[in-house]
Design brief:
The protein is an alpha/beta fold and about 400 residues long. It folds into 2 domains: about 270 residues, Crotonobetainyl-coa:carnitine coa-transferase, domain 1 (Rossmann fold); about 80 residues, formyl-coa transferase, domain 3. Helix content is about 40%, strand content about 15%. It contains 18 helices and 13 strands. The strands form 4 sheets. The protein has a 6-stranded parallel sheet with strand order 5-2-1-6-7-8, with helices on both faces. Strands 9-10-11 form a 3-stranded antiparallel sheet, with helices on one face. A two-stranded antiparallel ribbon has the order 3-4. A hairpin with a 5-residue loop joins strand 12 and strand 13. The longest helix has 24 residues. It starts with 8 loop residues before the first strand and ends with a helix.
Length: about 400
């Protein structure tokens, strides 16, 4: 077996990020992912630049490798019929249209599953397929705000320039895409037992709330609303960024043993024996004094010097790297974190590697992100057995 999903066909009717991210993951694992796009326009993110590589935006390139692009006009009756035929041949369909849009095209999920009982349909939306907010649109930034993430992200209220901050990538979309991918894989496994697919509902809002993890539980258990703490951790001390004589580093002490090692390394061994700091609950209670002492000590030497000492002592700490360093340093090269694919125009397209390393069914890097409609004829031949004349007729009718 060459790849884990080599016999799975995915119809990716989504655009922007959450759905395409899920589709890209499935493609990485070997699925044949066909991206359905609107003729002449395609995925919105194709135009989300600069920067550009040829005519493709970097944003689009980040989430559409290992896919083949087919253009279909869903407002055209022949385009709708063509989509039904493709869905009949698919194992998975991913879509993130506004709730009710597919039904207007005669492509409602239940009808598609009635025609193909083994089909798994994953619908991604802002607020889910049911409920009073089901028909509301939504993008990542508003979900980060309304679903709680921004309330715990950014400097404390009394810090200069304080205020809620969004995360530097569209993490609500990314995590919804991750939930979607795992749900699709679970549904495919369930299909092995039942012979039937199912409809999966993935809301951005619910996904965002779900992955707040310890912060949600901090509220549910402690009945105290978490706030912004900058780089600090609500449940661990010391666990935050500190300044050094020439920059910054991130200290991440996760248990009492590491705290003892850290204090010894910093020349602050008395803190490890002091009851006010010997346990994590005590350190939480006395956070301000401890952080101040650590900060004063770290300011006496350089980032590189302290990172070397902390590593020798087995204390988790790291530099705060920019992306140039992250993607070009020796570790990135050792781990082969950046790959290069060649697109249909012969251009070299860089891509960041999937982090999963299977022992027997390796992640594949088969296709660079496709140009708009690049594989329309190829897919209609492969999946549906259409002849050149049939395809020409669809083009003449403006269905594709």
């Amino acid at each position: 077996m060459d790849s884990a999903l080599q016999n799975i066909r995915v119809l990716d009717m989504s655009r922007v990020l959450a759905g395409p991210w899920a589709g890209q993951l499935l493609g990485d694992y070997g699925a044949d992912v066909v991206k359905i796009e609107r003729p002449g326009q395609g995925d919105d993110t194709r135009r989300w630049g600069p920067p550009w590589l040829g005519e493709a935006s970097a944003y689009y390139l980040s989430t559409n490798r290992n896919k083949r692009s087919v253009t279909i006009d869903l407002s055209h009756s022949e385009g709708q019929q063509l989509t039904r035929e493709l869905a009949n041949q698919a194992d998975v369909l991913i879509e993130n249209f506004k709730v009710g849009t597919l039904a207007r095209y005669g492509l409602e999920p239940q009808a598609l599953m009635d025609a193909n009982p083994r089909l798994v349909i994953c619908s991604i939306s802002a607020f889910g397929q049911s409920g009073s907010r089901a028909d509301e649109p939504g993008y990542d930034a508003m979900i980060q705000a309304s679903a709680g993430l921004m309330s715990i992200t950014g400097p404390p209220d009394d810090a200069a320039g304080g205020g809620p901050q969004k995360v530097g990538v569209a993490i609500a979309d990314i995590m919804a895409g991750m939930y979607a991918a795992t749900a699709i894989l679970a549904a495919l496994q369930a299909r092995e037992a039942t012979g039937r697919g199912q409809h999966i509902d993935i809301p951005l809002y619910d996904s965002q709330v779900a992955w707040l993890a310890n912060q949600s539980m901090n509220f549910l258990v402690g009945n105290k609303v978490p706030g912004r703490m900058g780089t600090a951790h609500p449940n661990l001390v010391p666990y935050q960024a500190f300044g050094t004589s020439d920059g910054n580093l991130m200290l991440a002490v996760g248990n009492d043993r590491q705290f003892v090692a850290c204090m010894g390394c910093l020349g602050l061994a008395d803190f490890a024996d002091d009851p006010d700091y010997a346990t994590n609950p005590a350190r939480i209670e006395n956070r301000v004094a401890l952080v101040g002492a650590i900060q004063s000590r770290l300011e006496t030497d350089t980032t590189a010097a302290w990172l070397g000492k902390l590593a020798d002592c087995g204390v988790p700490a790291g530099p705060i790297n920019d992306l140039r360093e992250v993607l070009t340093n020796a570790h990135a090269q050792e781990r082969n974190l950046v790959r290069t694919l060649t697109n249909g125009a012969g251009e070299a397209v860089p891509t960041v590697a999937n982090p999963v390393n299977f022992g027997n069914t390796p992640v594949s890097y088969r296709h660079a992100p496709p140009s708009l409609g690049e594989h329309t004829e190829e897919v209609l031949r492969d999946w549906l057995g259409y002849s050149a004349d049939m395809i020409d007729t669809l083009r003449e009718d403006a269905a594709i």
